[in-house]
Structure formats: structure tokens, C-alpha cells
Amino acid sequence: MESEMTEGPDEQPVTDDTVTENQQDGARFSRKQKILALIAGVIVLCLAYFMLAGGEEERPFASDDGQAPTVTVITPGTASIDDEITATGTLAARREMPVGVVGEGGRVVSVQVEPGDWVSAGQTLAVIDRNVQNQQAQSAAAQIDVAKADAELAQSNLDRALKLVERGFISQADIDRLTATRDSAIAQVKVAQAQYRELLARNARLNITAPAAGLVLTRDVEPGQVVGSGSGVLFSIARGGQMELLAQLGETALASVKAGVTAQVTPVGTDKTFEGQVWQVSPIIDEANRQGIARIALDYAPELRPGGFATARIAAGSVVAPMLPESAILSDDKGSYVYVIGKDNKTVRRSVTTGIVTDKGIAVTSGIKGSEKIVLRAGAFLTEGETVQPVAPGKE
């Protein structure tokens, strides 16, 4: 007997299309699982890589079994290090000569030099109009001729009188008077000559000349300008072209610098370095900024412009001290410090004072002797008193 099947109101008939859709949904779900599993695997691999190959810096943490962390330590010893002081300052002429009007002045006819020109001692820098002075000199020269003529006449009168005195026509008093006249005329010649030479010297001082050889730095005069004793500085000259750096140094640094030591000077705006020598150390300290000046002599070079800014590295002798790499020296609000491996392999904080910084490391001037075992890396992850396993570089 066949049983009659009826469908409920909520039931859906099972067909071939329904089975196909379910299979497609299962396939899509399986692909999503595979993609998510692949992404998770990549993330795990990346995390493992960064944990195992986290660069050169160590990150010491105690292992799960309670074993002490491993740290790399070094024993720096001591070495002789050339100490060097870095300072900044302003370039200037070592011996700057201000040049102005020496004579009575007048109207400038021409200016014969420009800033940057080299001049020799006595070379004319500017020419002053001397028409009036030339006329005065010619007048003085004529006065010499007049005085010489008077002197010759006086000499002739005296010679004739001496011939007549033997015959009794001329008294001795007349001879004395004529002799005095002759001597006075000769003196007038000398006076006229001296006045003439004085005018020539005055005229020679009208031109503005270089007092010594050197490099012209500035020019503050133009043709047609009227100059005199109150005109001030018209030219400035660096004697011999010599320059210097006025290096500003603190009290401590200034005390370690001696005259005669070498210095390397690099002007701003150029990568060229010039060798100089400290020739004077300031005997006083500025009360306002507590600094003094070390004057560094330099030979002339176009890049050394007075008024420019430059940096100097001054040799300050040598110091024997431990040398540590930068990774071993830590710092906080209390200052610089290192971790020393003490008794029972426990870390001990040791405050240090750092000195010169070189390509090979940083000099430690106080705080350690160099025979200690110093934590090389990862000191920032340690705490004082922590027990560690120290190993030599390359064995960690």
C-alpha cells in the first residue's frame, strides 16, 4: 500500500539545484579558510624572524626556565688619544691697518685700488688735487733763486770792501757790517730751501698711500669727494694678507689651549680646511659669557673672508683614557653611565665622564680604569644588581 507524502508548510522540497548550491558554499568556505591560514602563517614567520634576527642590539630577557640573560661585555683597556677642542668664531684680518688722510686733504681726483687688490708699501691708493700746492711750490723755488742772488751780491760787496780796507778807504766796522749782510743772505738761501722742501713734503702727503704691503679690504672714498683730517678711515688693509680666527672658548677649554698648537679651520660655506696656529690665548675671560678668545693665525686664501664664520678643531695634546663604543655609554637625567659586571656577575651602574669623540669611539676621562668588564650592548634593558651571563664579543 502506497503511503501518500505531504509537504509541511515550512519545508522546502529537496532538489538537485539545492544540493549544487550547498556544495558551492562549502567550496567557497574552504577557500577562505585556506587564505586565512596562509596569512596567519606569514605573520607567524615574520614575528619569528624579527624575534630571532633583531639586529645587532641584544634584548636580554630571562628565559622561561629562569636562566640569567646573556650580555656581551668588553674590557676596553687604555689608549693614548689625541685630544681635540672644537670651537667657533669670526674671521678677521690679523693686522688690520686703517688708512686715512695724512696731509691737509682736498678733492679726490682718482682712486687707484679696489677691495681685494694687493698693494705694496708706499703705493698710491688715491690722488688728491694739488694745483694750488704746486703753485706754492713753484713760488718757494723762485724764492730760493732770489735768496741766492742776494747772497751773491752780498759776497761781492764784501770782496770789494776787503780790497779797499788796505788803502784806508773802508773802516773795519764797514767790513763787519758787510760780512754780516753776506752771512744773512746765505742763511736766507737755506731758509728758502727748507721752505721749498717742506712744501714738497706736504704735497707728497696729499696722495693717500699704503703704509705697508697687504690686501685691500675696504674702500670708502670716491673721486670728487673732498677729504680732510676728519674724514676717518678711507681704506683698510690686511697687512701681508694675514688672517686669523677669533675662536670663542669656555674657561675649561681655554685653559687647555697653548700658544703654538695647530688648528684646522673650516669656513662656513666651503668644505675646504685650512691649517693654522694658535698665536695668542686671551689673558682675560668675558664676565658676561664666561668665554675667552684663542687667536688662530692663518695664511691668506680667497675663502677666508673677514667677518665670516668658521669652525676650528684645535689640538689640545693627548690623553690616556679608556675608549668605549657609543652603544656602551648610556645617559639619563643623572648623567652618563655604563654597566660594569661586578661580583657574582651582577650589573653595577658606574657614572662616567666622557671626553673626545672619535671614529673609534668615545673617550671616558673618569669613572672607569679600563680593566673592568663593560656591558657592550643592550644596557638599556638591564637594571642595577641584575644577574647576567657575560660573554666576549663574537661568542654570544
TrEMBL record:
| Residue span, Multidrug resistance protein MdtA-like barrel-sandwich hybrid domain | 106-231
Provide the family line. Answer: Belongs to the membrane fusion protein (MFP) (TC 8.A.1) family.
Look up keyword Transmembrane helix and say if it applies. yes
* Span of domain CusB-like beta-barrel: 247-316
What's a GO cellular component annotated to this UniProt protein? efflux pump complex
Q: Which PANTHER family match?
A: HLYD FAMILY OF SECRETION PROTEINS, MULTIDRUG RESISTANCE PROTEIN MDTA
Domain YknX-like C-terminal permuted SH3-like stretches: 324-389
Q: Does the keyword Transmembrane apply?
A: yes
Regions of compositional bias (Polar residues) in chain numbering? 15-25
Q: Where is the composition biased (Acidic residues)?
A: 1-14
GO terms, molecular function? efflux transmembrane transporter activity
Per UniProt, which keywords does this protein have?
Coiled coil, Membrane, Transmembrane, Transmembrane helix
Q: What organism is listed for this UniProt entry?
A: Altericroceibacterium spongiae
Per its record, how is this protein called by name?
Answer: Efflux RND transporter periplasmic adaptor subunit
Q: Where are the transmembrane segments?
A: 35-52
Domain of life, per the record?
Bacteria
Question: What Gene3D superfamilies has UniProt attached to this entry?
Answer: 2.40.30.170, 2.40.420.20, 2.40.50.100, Helix hairpin bin
Region annotated Disordered sits at: 1-25
Residue stretches in coiled coil: 175-209
